[in-house]
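[Q] Does anyone have a clean structure-token version of this?
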Amino acid sequence: MTVVIGFNWLFLHDNAAAAIVDGKLVFASEEERYTRHKHSIGEPPINALRQTFLYLKNRLGIKPKDVDAFALNWDPKLFSWNVRSRQALAHFYKLRDYGISLNESNRFNYTTILTTILSGDYLTFARSLVRHVILSLGEEAPSDIRVVPVRHHLAHAASAYYFSGFSSAAVLTVDGTGEYESTVIWKVKDGSFEPVLSMYTSYGSLGLLYQWITHGLGLGRLEGPGKGMGLAPYGERSKYYDKLREFVKIDPEGDEPYAILVNGKKVKSKDGEEWDSIYSYLAENVIGASHLTGTPGVS
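[A] Here you go.
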């Protein structure tokens, strides 16, 4: 029997945990259900993990020490060093605020902590979270907790493929951003994933642009994209489609399948804040959402 538990890392939003036993999903739960905070923004999935462990033990007789691996939805090696170190530092403070120790002895070894932060190895902190939850249940925590990082877009692609019923498929993942990419096209056969095309976030993110547009429609920042996709089949092509084409250039034969345009020029940036300004500017011009302010300084 193979038991894998997956949970969110980093602590961004909609944090959750799920258990897979012999390739089948047996339990899943979101943190917001327990904290009563919509989207559980920035909240470690402590309660979701706890309920996962309880379900496995009470319903299936599987104890925490029987779990083979824990899967995360990001891979730190794919981030730049600066991003990795910032994330590790942020998660150190987050776990400390929740009273979670970073080692089995319950003591803060600052040399180890500093080394971990500088190396950007947040897997150490993930193991600390798992250990904390297991001990809070009065269970024995394994000394060799195995944590497996998963490329963010691969996690999205897998969730679509494995529940599709197809053995071979093409999978399109469009997100705000992964470790470094915003859109990926996958060729999948018999569970083997091959990325056919990858679009870097620095060249633009259709996911983030869509988020800003649906936010401008009054559907919210985190809920807007999902609601927009749900409502889309009921709509018809409108003036907004042609307006949007002024800002998004599609070039399937070029090196970049698409590009974000401002004043007719391609925009490329690695600064997340600048991109937010660009997307809010485009959303304001596409749908006329006057409450989205901020004209980007694009050279």
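[Q] Thanks! Anything notable?
[A] The CA atoms of residues 187 and 193 lie 6 Å apart.
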